[in-house]
Amino acid sequence: MSLEHAVEMRGISKRFGNVQALNGVDLELRRGELLGLVGDNAAGKSTLMKTLYGSVIPDAGEIFVEGQKAALRNPRDAQALGLAMIYQDLAVFNNLDVAANVFTGREYTRRVLGITFLDKKRMYNESEALLSRLRINISSPKLLVERMSGGQRQMVAVARAIGFDATILIMDEPTAALGVKEANTLLDLMAELRDQGISIILITHRITDVLSIGDRVMVLKGGERQGILNVEDSTLEDVEYLIVRGRSDGSG
Amino acid sequence: MTANQTPAARVESARARVRELMAHRESGVFLALVVFFVVMYTVSPIFRRPFNLTTILRQISVTSIVAMGQTLVIVSGAFDLSQGSIAGLAAMVTAKLWKNAGLDPPIAIIGGLGVGVLCGFLNGVLAARFRLHPIVMTLATGAVFLGVNFYITRGESIIGLPDGLTWLGRGLIGPVPALIVLMFVVAFLMHILLTRTLFGLRVRMIGGNLKASQDVGMNVERIRVGIFTLSGFLSALGGIVLLGRVGNALPQIGQGLLFPVVTAAIVGGTLLTGGVGSMAGTLIGAAIMGIARNSLVVLQLNIYLQDIVQGMLVVVALLIDQFRRGELNWRIILGRDR
Ligand SMILES: Nc1ncnc2c1ncn2[C@@H]1O[C@H](COP(=O)(O)OP(=O)(O)OP(=O)(O)O)[C@@H](O)[C@H]1O
Ligand SMILES: [Mg+2]
């Protein structure tokens, strides 16, 4: 396995009933790049990323993370390998506060008399620091997520994923619910994280976003890979052509 | 708060604090409790007698203890309808261990609590591993526990219990009835459990968003088993306290416990859809019902009004809940929401 790749997926296939969601898809994510993943609705983008994150088990195919073959049976396995994902259908806990959401699954605790207590103070402090580092417009980590706007919830999910100290970040349409200003903040943040060496896969329908901050863009259509383009020598029309028409010949 | 604030700023920050307070779900019910208490205190000289006030606390103690377990279960997104039967079975096993097996009262009590833990564990396994729907499942296991109770006792009471068995229900710690102390201790510990521990957070998580909890990869099964086991334990504890209050071991102990227990939780603001609820709220809910019941007595109204009042309280609590969640508003009620 080439070591320039943070992730390599080979021949991933997945069928749901009589829908072939993915059909022999390959993907290479270079270390430290921001790869856009685009395609029409139902192209298989979310499903492909879920197989990488261990929340969907593929019918066929292999996944390599940092050159090692990975057995991903659930998201915990993926997290252990340094992956973090923001789901399209935000998996936030509306009944909990911001800090609890940011630290979901890796809470700071203290054991006293065999009982695991939450170290709330530390989680509040660190999530407050995280929110301000990410320039997220949420006034307090004690706020209930229930009372937040869609955009703020999105940012909570972003903070959770980034807070994991992941080296590989998967974002499924993170800007979909955001206003122009919030979306730009998030895009800047992603570019910044990429410059810090984090490898990122960004699913989005806003192709111009990928062209402005991305390195490469991969197109899916009908569960099949249509091609990977270098952002530098591609235009919006090139990408859109692939999305709509697919590759006209066998090249990809 | 600094001294050099303008009056307007001070008013604003006071307002902000009031808003923050009101944002707590318990604030509304607590206010209701205070108003209710003050009104009764003012209008009824019998009500404000210290003896009457401790009577109320003694009366709500068993309900509260068991309701703490129910609150935990409801917050996790389930129900435990077998609590009354567990309470009865644990009480009778305790009495029988003393009477027939000749065990010392403390050992017999531990045995009774063990039975509650076992029943709760069984509920937990059926709910978590076998994925049975908790409402129907606990209704069924409740019937089984009740049947076991009547089978082993043949429906016969055990009259005359030793002090060791009745102490929890009748004893005093200093000047304070033991069961009142027990109620506050249980409430405090359960509050800590729900709000300060990882387990409590997990309970709120699976009740708030089960799918996301599974996505995170937490052990939902184990948490569920823990929840039902704790509910079984607290039911048994309630049953054993009841044993002391009654003074004799009657097989039908614990019957009729379920409704006030669930009522306390609901009136206390526990969301039936899971994820939200507090032990303080449940305690307040139990207190409101206790005062309501006591009012009927001290105002010399017909005690049979009790069921009506209790039922109405639940309906009102449910309505308030619907409003708060935005599921209901005046337009819908007036039929203009088409
Ligand atoms: N759990 C599932 N069960 C059944 N079918 C599924 C499931 N998940 C995805 N599919 C199907 O697989 C196909 C690909 O879905 P996927 O969510 O990956 O698309 P997508 O590219 O992310 O689309 P969108 O842009 O709308 O998010 C669709 O036809 C979808 O209906
Ligand atoms: Mg999708």
Automatic annotation (TrEMBL), chain B:
It is a multi-pass membrane protein. Keywords: Cell inner membrane, Cell membrane, Membrane, Transmembrane, Transmembrane helix, Transport. This is Autoinducer 2 import system permease protein LsrD. The chain crosses the membrane at residues 28-47, 59-79, 107-128, 135-152, 172-194, 225-246, 258-291. It comes from the Bacteria. The keyword rRNA processing does not apply. Pfam families: BPD_transp_2. One of its GO terms (cellular component) is plasma membrane. It comes from Caldilineaceae bacterium SB0661_bin_32.
